[in-house]
Design a protein that fits this description.
Glutaredoxin; alpha+beta; 4 strands; globular
């Protein structure tokens, strides 16, 4: 298998953490594929029509894309149980969706400041994206701490990768303010070897 990879992509980081946690890292070739919406990654053309990372090329089937699809596939391959059965499964999937929603909003903020010409940037739109992130972090802090503190699953990995990306690109906005329980949990979870091994360049 070949994983198309960008070192600063939080979606790629989710997959890399899963590979570390499930002992599958040696089974996957890592291929660099960096790009932007304005300049798609050349290696992905023909692999993923959306030209987004991560994408997982397989010998026995079509290339898989979207981090949630890839993570579910690799979890099933390893029979790791990061997407458990029963009631907890729906909590894990909801947590992963919430984490990816944080990432979607944060990435749009990054594109706004880095790719759009300065005279065309829309501060109110950027602030609206941050409002989504604030609500998501508050929900995690108020509703999800018991789950986050439970057995390892993909929801926890996704949330940690999302919060790590906020530290990487939007640290000045201070997601920890008012979310002390979440911040304390993140500090502990982020110290796992799998998280340390996948820290993107420039991450504080």
């Amino acid at each position: 298998m070949k994983l198309y990879h960008s070192p600063t992509s939080p979606y790629v980081r989710k997959v890399m953490v899963l590979l570390h946690e499930t002992g599958q890292l040696a089974d996957v070739e890592i291929a660099s594929a960096t790009g932007t919406p304005m300049s798609p990654a050349e290696p992905l053309l023909g692999k993923n029509p959306l030209t987004k990372v991560p994408a997982l090329e397989r010998a026995d089937g079509p290339t898989l894309f979207d981090s949630r699809v890839i993570c579910a596939f690799l979890d099933a391959r390893a029979q790791a149980g990061l997407y458990p059965q029963g009631t907890r499964r729906w909590e894990v999937l909801t947590l992963e969706a919430l984490a990816d929603g944080i990432l979607d909003a944060a990435l749009l903020m990054t594109y706004e400041s880095r790719l759009r010409p300065e005279d065309m940037q829309w501060d109110s739109w950027t602030d609206a994206q941050w409002s989504k992130i604030e609500r998501a972090c508050a929900a995690l802090n108020q509703r999800w701490m018991a789950h986050l503190s439970g057995p390892l699953d993909m929801g926890q990995i996704a949330v940690t990768c999302a919060l790590g990306y906020l530290d990487l690109r939007h640290e000045v906005r201070g997601w920890r303010t008012g979310n002390e329980a979440l911040a304390a949990w993140y500090s502990t979870f982020e110290s796992r070897p799998s998280m340390q091994a996948t820290r993107p360049p420039g991450m504080i």
